[in-house]
Design goal:
The chain is an all-alpha fold. The protein has a domain at 65-90. It is 87% helix and 0% strand. The longest helix is centred in the middle third of the chain and has 35 residues, at 15-49. The chain crosses the membrane at residues 20-43, 55-74.
Length: 90
């Protein structure tokens, strides 16, 4: 008798699996692109707002702080209401 884990390992990859991989990859790509664009935006931001290098560092760090706090909050909300509900609300 096969266990559930063994049965899942033996299943062939379906079109649905590839769709999930593609959508997950696109989600990761857009998230990484969002973080990467900060470097380009900081140049214009510093020039337009006359910001010093330490101030630009704070602006860049604020984005990462927001991601950190958002992950903490989202994790707690996902534990309470479920990941699916949270993804649909997002």
């Amino acid at each position: 008798m096969l266990t559930l884990s063994q049965r899942l390992d033996e299943l062939p990859l379906s079109r649905e699996h590839w769709r999930i991989v593609l959508l997950s990859g696109l989600g990761w790509m857009f998230d990484a692109m969002d973080v990467g664009l900060v470097a380009f935006v900081l140049v214009s931001l510093g020039r337009d707002w006359d910001l010093s290098r330490p101030q630009l560092g704070l602006v860049a760090s604020a984005g990462f702080l927001g991601m950190f706090l958002g992950a903490l909050l989202a994790g707690r909300l996902a534990d309470r209401y479920g990941r699916r509900t949270l993804f649909l609300a997002n």
